[in-house]
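Researcher: We are triaging several targets before committing to wet-lab work. For this one, the compound of interest is guanosine-5'-triphosphate. I'm pasting the protein sequence and the ligand SMILES. What I need is the predicted three-dimensional arrangement of the protein with the ligand bound, expressed as structure tokens, so it can go straight into our comparison scripts without reformatting.
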Amino acid sequence: MSDASQTPLSDQPTGEDGFRAGFVAIVGRPNVGKSTLLNRLIGQKISIVSSKAQTTRHRVTGILTEPGAQFVFVDTPGFQTHHRNALNRSMNRTVSQVLADVDLVFFVIEAGRFTEDDRKVLAVIPESSKVILVINKVDQLKDKTRLLPFIAQVREARDFTEIVPLSAEKGRNVDELVKAATPLLPVGTPMFEEDEITDRSERFLASEFLREKLFRLLGDELPYGIAVEIEKFEVEGNLRRIYAAVIVDKPGHKSMVIGRGGEKLKRISSEARVELEKLFDGKVFLEVWVKVKSGWADDERALKSLGYE
Ligand SMILES: Nc1nc2c(ncn2[C@@H]2O[C@H](COP(=O)(O)OP(=O)(O)OP(=O)(O)O)[C@@H](O)[C@H]2O)c(=O)[nH]1
């Protein structure tokens, strides 16, 4: 599926050279390593952020341009099966729409574990999709002879186009995934310049980085329905001043995010700031506070204002 309205970029290879370009969705239940895989795939190229406005109908999370192909990775919001409310309904709807529309799907699971939740995710991928089964975390598999019978077990669930075992964290066999995926993309012109890694705005990336830190550092204590809103984003030369609010659903959740003596929130914002400085290649001043907006997760309008469709 290539966007026909897009003008081909000059000096770029065209479909006539056999160049391939397409949209790829990385899906899987929480914690299988999707983000680690995406970061590994686009690797060190996270340095230049395009200021171009949204150019495709998908939310692009990363772009990998190889000599013969361009992979445009698109977002599929987290797969939720446990809570039923407006937020999850909206998310699951988006997942199915995105999957019906991309050129290729990476379905990620953990080596040695094929759970009910994995099956639920697999069930949402349309039958017509081309799917590569990515078996991640092979480094955790102590007994390597278990891999083949495990593959045989998972294959019973679906006829995968390709199967690639790898370790996203250790960077093992990730090249093989790119090699296997390239011929599965349609022939076409690149949609982005070679050095672009994302078409999201700096403001959006700041909120994503902060959200990621909240998820990581709050772990099991993460309140359901938490969100990040960037209230102000100012650029002064090489300094970015970012004012962000963490939005929670209940007053009791506020103290969970702040932590004793403010320690938790301090750590979250300082880790996010360090990573944003690397990303933007400049100084970042980041101020974060916590706000309570009761029942926001059930309010469709609030969802829209926070960027969910
Ligand atoms: N041992 C090992 N751990 C990994 C590997 N890839 C990812 N992990 C770890 O698995 C955990 C989850 O990784 P993420 O990349 O956040 O997983 P995700 O699928 O994006 O998770 P959600 O955002 O919750 O959907 C992290 O602690 C990673 O460090 C791997 O190849 N080997």
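Researcher: Any quick observations?
Model: Residues 28, 30-36, 78, 136-137, 139-140, 167-170 surround guanosine-5'-triphosphate (CB under 6 Å).
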